[in-house]
Amino acid sequence: MNTSFDGRICVMRKYLLFFKLSIQEYFEYRVNMLVIVLSGFVPFFATLFLWRAIYDAGGSVGNYTLADLAVYTVLSVSLRLITSMEAHFSVADDVRKGNLSNYLIKPMNYFWARFFRRLGLIPIRIIGSLVLGALFLLVLGEEISINLRVDGVIFFLLFSLLSVFLNYALSFLYGCIAFWLKEILGVYVSIWFTVKFLSGTFFPLDLLGGLFKNIVLALPFQLGVYVPIIALLGKYEMVDYLKLSGLYVFWTFVVFLLVGFVWKKAQNHYESVGI
Question: Which end of the chain is more exposed for a tag (fewer CB within 10 A), N or C?
């Protein structure tokens, strides 16, 4: 029998246990999770009615139709809800309360343990997004017409999946700030707003102009919301998909390297100060 293979299976079972615990926690604290899901509805309807008011007044927004912006709005809220991962508060809480020590003494990787813990929330949030989509169709269903392309759907799904890993790694990095700062709430709120803006959650990033747009479109944040949605709307060609796939690989590689470097420094700091 291959003991190495058996060991990997045993480790995977431990990580899947975190996935299961996350779902169990949802049912224990389902009211809190319901509030989180419903909180996505407010910006959705506010933005939706803003776009509608602009077009009803005879205006326009870039090269987008009202249908495009309506679809973009519902998908931006849904994608942000599903793929954001947002592990930084959990990491900071483990550091502040000393719970991190319970992970470090066990034969497991804290980074992946937290990943599977956050991964367990995705099925619940997908359900919430489906409810949001149903409300969207109820409000604007008759006015929406969008031509989906096979390549757009495929790359939308692929980019959304890749963004789960990238967003988690970025969030884990933010969480490591707690190793050096005790008061991190203000920092995290600033990060939250900045990331939402740079990811294209509020509006399509190509509405920005000049050098600032070029800088924003070179950063990793756009890969979590803006890029998958634009792919689904069919506004990319195959050459764009190839370039963006390379950008995903590049930023995921860079961010994971940063995670490894910062995590090593954070562990040394954690042990030296005896947090």
Answer: N
DSSP string, 90-118: HHHHHHHHTTHHHHHTSSS-HHHHHHHHH
Reading the block at residue 226, the tokens are 């803006």
Q: What b/e sequence results for 41-52 when a residue is b if at least 16 CB atoms lie within 10 Å of its CB, and e otherwise? A: eebbbebbeebb
Point out which residues pair with 64 in neighbouring strands.
61
Distance (Å, whole) CA 247 – CA 242: 9
C-alpha torsion angle, residues 98, 125, 109, 171 (rounded to 10):
-70
Who's near 51: CB < 8 A, 6+ residues apart? 61, 66, 69, 70, 73
Any idea where the domains of the chain sit in the sequence? 3-273
What pTM did the predictor assign?
0.85
Classify 275 as helix, strand or coil: coil
The one-letter code for the residue type at 77 is V
Place of tokens 């099925």: 123
Q: What is the pLDDT of residue 141?
A: 63
Q: How far apart are CA 233 and CA 205, in angstroms?
A: 14
